[in-house]
Specification:
With about 300 residues, this protein is an alpha/beta fold. It folds into three domains: about 80 residues, Winged helix-like DNA-binding domain superfamily/Winged helix DNA-binding domain (Arc Repressor Mutant, subunit A, Orthogonal Bundle), CATH 1.10.10; about 100 residues, Periplasmic binding protein-like II (D-Maltodextrin-Binding Protein, domain 2, 3-Layer(aba) Sandwich); about 100 residues, Periplasmic binding protein-like II (D-Maltodextrin-Binding Protein, domain 2, 3-Layer(aba) Sandwich), CATH 3.40.190.10. The strands form three sheets. Strands 3, 4, 5, 6, 9, 10 and 11 form a seven-stranded mixed sheet that branches. The chain has a two-stranded antiparallel ribbon with strand order 1-2. A hairpin with a 2-residue loop joins strand 1 and strand 2. It is elongated, with a radius of gyration of 25 Å.
């Protein structure tokens, strides 16, 4: 079993960039630190440092061990903070990144279980492009990121995607625009003005494929990265727009529109992306385990 005291000494030396600097920061003698690291190397059966002139530099294995040590002691600090916060009766911060393609109403539905927790919670939401949010997640500025797709395989971020659920997609239009359409759904969409999610939205390609399969060719009048802005244009009557059917009642009530019909085969999925496979933050566990969108096909992928 790893001696975590020795691991902490290794972590201190690696972060300080040398035994002497670590000694100055920790108040421990250089001989003590060197001896503890040597004992850890013996236990692990590997070399963690190598000499480069007068300097100590991490070996490739040492780099890997440091990554794990960073995570271990970060979690330890989080545990201390959580216990301190709970004992003092203060609200536990829950830092959430919301991808700009995720509808605001969906984000609320996904986060609602965390609000219902018995312990006080202070939600801090940040909205941005997915890649920007994942960068903040990687350096632990966020506890979780809500997105419409799992962690992209080309991202240099170690994380895990927890599927929260999915919803079919419906089309909406103002009463005036609805009245001008001809024929039943989905034929009535042919030639009609249409607003679409931007290229970053995971649902865009399935929507275009569905329209093509039904031989329906609307007139694309706008494309939007921000789903709220797309709905605002739809509310103004600029065009028909798609949205998750799960929030259809809210969309109709808030924007004064009507549901034209549903593309049942087009599913919009939503994920919680974290840097840990085993979820530890109580709010992240709540939205993963008790979300109202939870589907039978929920999974976890790295």
């Amino acid at each position: 079993m790893i001696n975590f005291k020795q691991l902490h000494h290794f972590w201190s030396v690696a972060r300080a960039g040398g035994v002497v600097r670590a000694s100055e920061r920790t108040g421990l003698a250089p001989q003590t630190l060197s001896g503890q690291i040597a004992a850890l190397e013996t236990t692990l059966g590997v070399n963690l440092f190598r000499r480069q002139g007068r300097r100590l530099v991490l070996t490739e294995t040492g780099d890997m061990v440091l990554d794990y040590a960073e995570e271990i002691f970060r979690l330890g600090t989080e545990l201390e903070d959580a216990l301190s916060t709970r004992s003092a009766g203060r609200a536990l911060p829950f830092r959430v990144g919301v991808s700009d393609v995720v509808p605001k109403a969906i984000a609320y539905v996904l986060l609602a279980p965390s609000i219902a927790l018995p312990e006080p919670m202070r939600i801090v939401c940040r909205e941005n492009k997915l890649d920007q949010l994942l960068g903040e997640l990687a350096v632990h500025k966020l506890d979780v990121v809500l997105a419409d797709s799992p962690l992209p395989p080309n991202m240099d971020v170690r994380g895990y995607s927890h599927k929260l659920g999915e919803s079919p997609v419906s089309f909406f239009a103002t009463p005036a625009l609805s009245a001008s359409l001809k024929g039943p759904f989905p034929a009535c969409l042919h030639g009609a003005p249409m607003l679409l999610p931007g290229a970053d939205a995971a649902v865009r390609r399935p929507l275009l494929r569905w329209l093509e399969d039904h031989k329906v060719h609307p007139r694309i009048v706008g494309e939007f990265d921000d789903s709220a802005l797309m709905k605002a244009f739809g509310e103004a009557g600029v065009g028909i727009f798609p949205s998750a059917d799960l929030i259809s009642d809210e969309v109709c009530r808030q924007h004064g529109v009507q549901r034209l019909g549903t593309a049942d085969s087009v599913r919009e999925s939503f994920y919680a992306i974290s840097v840990e496979r085993r979820l530890t933050h109580p709010a992240v566990r709540a939205i993963s385990n008790a979300g109202p969108m939870q589907s039978d096909s929920a999974d976890t992928t790295s």
